[in-house]
């Protein structure tokens, strides 16, 4: 690990006032907060705090890993992330708030339910550091507009019409979030594969669900099998073929909770008894126009941006010998934990392989796993300038690049999935009418 790549903690800040942070959302391992205090510095950021999970890496370890491992690989595509010192009160106070909130009703900043409920856990109260991450959510322009308008104008229904001429201001109108998964085929797939790793796993999992459905009592909870959401094939996305890219884009945009367009509808005036609906505001017109053009806009982005080719190249490079090589098998053993440097050295001695103090990229299964489970955030900015049509630009950032280490190393799970995919014939296309190599239906 190169220490010169790791930025110092935010200077002059010790976060200790829980009242300045509003719940934003959470995953299995972290809770995110949005700043509601007076310091403009934190406006473009979110605070990301670790939950208490046995064996999880500390925030300092995550921060060091993020910058030393991913900084050189992803450069500007790495989600901006700083580390900040926490005071002794903030975690206990935020934990009290979490404990008081109703887990059943929990929703994130955009109203999406927090699922599954078992993800709910308290923050690690032994942690004295937090991460400050670039906020990729959308709709922040609406807060800025509200702040900039004098009160009398906010109530003036004519105001938006007056602005219809447009302005130079970019508005963060939409956000797209998805996991780019396996953009290159798994090296453990058999030579005659028809399905990619992601589609093969989906077919295996959905067949398991269907078997469960057949076994349950009719009318029971599990009997109500939801129709499978349209899933995207990562090989379509990385194919370079415009038709396949468009197909993947359409599927991504139709996945549950992958896209969010901020609703610019002004709060309704309950006192008004006006039957005639107000004409759409400029923001509403822009949002509608964006909604209608999102597939085209994103297809074009995926065709021209270097981000998908970059992630594909990295996925091809890390873990390119798969999880069944003698080196990685020896390293994993039957335990789901990271081996120590000494264990790696001894394993190499036993298999007769050359010992290298750091794993070579091909055998670096931990980086490979992280790379295939990260999130791609796209923030879509829109503006309408005087006398011109709608203009859009997209920021792409890669997040959730947490080290899959400790008890969550998942190496054994990974090997088992590969084994089940091969043994069950899922790579061969069982249960599918599609060929991921060509993108064609069979
Ligand atoms: O195995 P996969 O491909 O289904 O990926 C798992 C993810 O499932 P999904 O993206 O929904 O298909 C899964 O995501 P969800 O919990 O389903 O949101 C996790 O990210 C899991 O990683 P970890 O075990 O928490 O470290 C992921 O496991 P890893 O394979 O990355 O270890
Ligand atoms: N920088 C960000 N900008 C906007 N939204 C974010 C950002 N980081 C996280 N989120 C939102 O919060 C959710 C949870 O965050 P995150 O993925 O960091 O948590 P996690 O605990 O690591 O998740 P997982 O369940 O994958 O382990 C994300 O799915 C995303 O919707």
TrEMBL record:
<dbReference type="InterPro" id="IPR009286">
    <property type="entry name" value="Ins_P5_2-kin"/>
</dbReference>
<feature type="region of interest" description="Disordered">
    <location>
        <begin position="260"/>
        <end position="282"/>
    </location>
</feature>
<dbReference type="GO" id="GO:0035299">
    <property type="term" value="F:inositol-1,3,4,5,6-pentakisphosphate 2-kinase activity"/>
</dbReference>
<keyword id="KW-0418">Kinase</keyword>
<comment type="function">
    <text>Has kinase activity and phosphorylates inositol-1,3,4,5,6-pentakisphosphate (Ins(1,3,4,5,6)P5) to produce 1,2,3,4,5,6-hexakisphosphate (InsP6), also known as phytate.</text>
</comment>
<dbReference type="Pfam" id="PF06090">
    <property type="entry name" value="Ins_P5_2-kin"/>
</dbReference>
<dbReference type="GO" id="GO:0005634">
    <property type="term" value="C:nucleus"/>
</dbReference>
<dbReference type="InterPro" id="IPR043001">
    <property type="entry name" value="IP5_2-K_N_lobe"/>
</dbReference>
<comment type="similarity">
    <text>Belongs to the IPK1 type 1 family.</text>
</comment>
<keyword id="KW-0547">Nucleotide-binding</keyword>
<dbReference type="GO" id="GO:0005524">
    <property type="term" value="F:ATP binding"/>
</dbReference>
<comment type="function">
    <text>Phosphorylates Ins(1,3,4,5,6)P5 at position 2 to form Ins(1,2,3,4,5,6)P6 (InsP6 or phytate).</text>
</comment>
<keyword id="KW-0808">Transferase</keyword>
<protein>
    <recommendedName>
        <fullName>Inositol-pentakisphosphate 2-kinase</fullName>
        <ecNumber>2.7.1.158</ecNumber>
    </recommendedName>
</protein>
<keyword id="KW-0067">ATP-binding</keyword>
<dbReference type="GO" id="GO:0032958">
    <property type="term" value="P:inositol phosphate biosynthetic process"/>
</dbReference>
């Amino acid at each position: 690990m190169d220490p010169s790549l790791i930025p110092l903690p935010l200077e002059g800040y010790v976060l200790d006032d829980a009242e300045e942070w509003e719940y934003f959302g959470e995953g299995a391992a972290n809770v995110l907060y949005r700043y509601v205090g007076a310091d403009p510095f934190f406006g473009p950021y979110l605070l990301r705090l670790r939950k208490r999970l046995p064996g999880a890496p500390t925030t300092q370890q995550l921060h060091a890993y993020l910058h030393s491992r991913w900084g050189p690989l992803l450069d500007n595509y790495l989600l901006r992330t700083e580390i900040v010192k926490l005071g002794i009160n903030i975690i206990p106070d935020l934990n009290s708030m979490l404990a008081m909130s109703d887990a059943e009703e929990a929703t994130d900043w955009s109203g999406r339910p927090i699922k599954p409920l078992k993800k709910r856990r308290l923050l690690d109260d032994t942690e004295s550091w937090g991460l400050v991450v670039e906020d990729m959510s959308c709709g922040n322009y609406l807060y800025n507009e509200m702040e900039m308008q004098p009160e009398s104008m906010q109530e003036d229904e004519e105001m938006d019409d007056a602005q219809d001429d447009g302005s130079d201001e970019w508005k963060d109108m939409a956000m797209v979030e998805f996991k780019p998964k396996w953009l290159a085929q798994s090296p453990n797939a058999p030579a005659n594969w028809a399905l990619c790793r992601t589609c093969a796993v989906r077919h295996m999992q959905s067949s398991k669900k269907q078997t469960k459905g057949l076994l349950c009592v009719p009318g029971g909870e599990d009997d109500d099998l939801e129709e499978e959401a349209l899933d995207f094939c990562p090989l379509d996305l990385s194919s370079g073929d415009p038709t396949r890219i468009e197909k993947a884009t359409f599927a991504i945009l139709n996945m549950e909770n992958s896209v969010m367009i901020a609703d610019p509808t002004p709060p309704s005036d309950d006192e008004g008894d006006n039957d005639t609906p107000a004409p759409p505001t400029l923001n509403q017109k822009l949002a509608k126009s964006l909604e209608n053009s999102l597939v085209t806009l994103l297809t074009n982005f995926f065709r021209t941006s270097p981000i998908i080719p970059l992630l594909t190249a990295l996925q091809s490079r890390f873990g390119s010998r798969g999880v069944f090589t003698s080196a990685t098998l020896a390293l994993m053993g039957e335990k789901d934990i990271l081996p120590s440097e000494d264990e790696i050295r001894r394993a190499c001695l036993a298999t007769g392989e050359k010992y290298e103090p750091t794993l070579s990229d091909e055998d670096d299964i931990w980086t490979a796993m992280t790379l295939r489970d990260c999130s791609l955030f796209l923030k879509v900015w829109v503006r309408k300038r005087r006398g011109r049509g709608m203009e859009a630009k997209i920021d792409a950032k890669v997040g959730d690049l947490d080290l899959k280490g400790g008890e969550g190393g998942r190496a054994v799970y990974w090997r088992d999935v590969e084994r089940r995919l091969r043994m069950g014939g899922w790579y061969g296309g069982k249960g599918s009418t599609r060929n991921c190599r060509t993108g064609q239906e069979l």
